[in-house]
Amino acid sequence: MSALTRFLGDTPLRVLLKLLVVSFLVGLVMNAFGWSPIDVLYGIRNFFVDLWNLGFRAIDRFLGYILLGAAIVIPAFILLRIANYRK
Questions:
Q1: pLDDT grade, residue 78 (50/70/90)?
Q2: What is the CA radius of gyration of the chain?
Q3: C-beta separation of 36 from 30 below 8 A
Q4: Selection from 26, 31, 3, 4 nearest residue 15 by Cα
Q5: What is the pLDDT of residues 11-24, one digit of tens each?
Q6: Interatomic CA distance for residues 35 and 29, integer angstroms
Q7: 23 near 29, Cβ under 8 Å?
Q8: Most buried of 15, 42, 75, 77, CB within 10 angstroms?
Q9: CA quadruple 53, 55, 56, 62: dihedral positive or negative?
Q10: CB distance 12 to 5 below 8 Å
């Protein structure tokens, strides 16, 4: 078995034939949906951008909850510390 055959997993001609068949089927499906290769790339990019933004929105919401709670907890803590300081 040659190094090329071992690398490809089959003989080069059979691999080429398989790739042609799969390329035809993928092209057929993409044409049916009206997709182009650039649409696929934009879709992948938009997926990661949306994922990135979703992560930061979640952090923003989490920090918002902390600040909302701190608006009550910090003044109450200070008042309790002042009240206990006199004793």
A1: confident
A2: 30
A3: yes
A4: 4
A5: 999 999 999 999 99
A6: 9
A7: no
A8: 15
A9: positive
A10: yes
